[in-house]
Design goal:
Length: 362
């Protein structure tokens, strides 16, 4: 298959430029498009055959449900039944935006989209290209992240092209995604609203609107049937083995980790804040990426840097953990999954295995 690549011109009408992509969606094809979170792999969400093409393109397990993207709140009335008051409050407060709601599905939603569940995930993105594409297509667009399953999600069109060129009908280049991590997913069918995946709408933001909010323990369980995208254990992963160092002494212990790795002849990738990166010795064996100093900077750059490590062909990766407050909950969720839950605890003068495995050179 030849993949069409659209470079959008900001000085021309967006809807005119998206007409061909929307036509492909209506015809049951798969088109990648930008959102404010990451790029999505989109197809007609009410067409079971089109949904199957998404799973095939991503090489995604059929038990991992998709998110339906809509352009206006009224569309929720077609996709869902028995909306809870909590769902309505969250729609009013956070839509359009990086929040996905789990609701009871209507009969028109194909089981291929919901992976056989009685619920469906729905989001209204806050991105002009995504909104216009949905409107022009005339249907909800089912769209997981536009990458091969298990790999880091793409935040720019060139990253989508790495995985999907020749596999899907088209890719829309809308620049770099603003947030950089996927939407928050909240189950509104439970008595207490429950976070199934942390994201751009934080726990603190949800609590400010709803009061009590729970975090699903399934976020940490292995091999469970996922209630929502992103709940699989191994996810967002670079090619090289990755280790996450958590704790207030993480910077000190990252230096120790890097020293031991280079002495063992390893080429090591480092993902840390600016201050930690500045402490590392300059070496051809060390590829260090700094996200700066804020959670927002890390979220925006995380997946791009993980993909960079693949291109730089490092042997091992070490990353610095951050506080789980605010956006940090989503960041740590993604980094723990990317590391395959290989987590080391940094204490003063020592590095302890918390979960997973420890590299042989330590």
């Amino acid at each position: 298959m030849k993949t069409k690549f659209w470079h959008l011109n900001k000085n021309e009408d967006i809807r005119t430029q998206l007409a061909e992509a929307a036509k492909l969606i209506r015809e049951g094809e798969v088109v990648a498009f930008p959102t404010e979170t990451v790029y999505g792999l989109g197809a007609n969400g009410l067409d079971s055959k089109a949904a199957k093409k998404i799973f095939a393109a991503k090489e995604r397990p059929a038990d991992n449900p998709l998110i339906l993207h809509i352009a206006d709140k009224a569309a929720m009335g077609l996709l869902a039944v028995d909306l809870s008051p909590n769902a309505v409050r969250l729609m009013d407060e956070f839509w359009p935006g990086p929040l996905t709601l789990i609701v009871n599905k209507s009969i028109i939603v194909p089981i291929e989209v919901t992976a056989g569940l009685d619920t469906v995930a729905v989001r209204m993105p806050d991105h002009p290209i995504a909104k216009a594409l949905i409107e022009l297509s005339g249907c909800p667009i089912a769209a997981p992240s536009a990458n091969k399953s298990g790999k880091p999600s793409p935040t720019k069109a060139t990253a989508v092209q790495e995985d999907m060129d020749g596999v899907i009908a088209g890719i829309i280049d809308g620049g770099i995604s603003d947030i950089g991590v996927e939407s928050t997913i909240v189950d509104t069918t439970s008595l207490v609203p429950t976070i199934l995946r942390p994201g751009g709408v934080t726990l603190e933001m949800l609590e400010a609107v709803l009061g009590a909010v729970e975090i699903d323990p399934g976020l940490l369980l292995v091999n469970q049937k996922p209630k929502a995208p992103g709940m699989k254990y191994r996810h967002y992963a670079p090619k090289a083995e990755m280790y996450l160092i958590e704790g207030v002494f993480a910077a000190e212990q990252i230096s120790f980790f890097v020293n031991r790795a280079t002495k063992a002849g390893k080429k090591i990738g480092v993902l840390a804040d600016a201050a930690t990166v500045s402490l590392l010795a300059n070496s051809s064996q060390v590829v260090a990426h700094s996200w700066g100093n804020t959670q927002a900077e890390l979220a925006e750059k995380l997946y791009d840097y993980l993909r960079c490590f693949d291109q730089e062909e490092v042997d091992v990766i070490v990353a610095q953990g951050v506080s789980e407050e605010a956006l940090g909950l989503a960041i740590m969720n993604r980094m723990r999954k990317a590391a395959g839950n290989n987590i080391l605890k940094a204490e003063r003068g020592k590095l302890l295995l918390q979960r997973g495995t420890i590299p042989s050179f330590l």
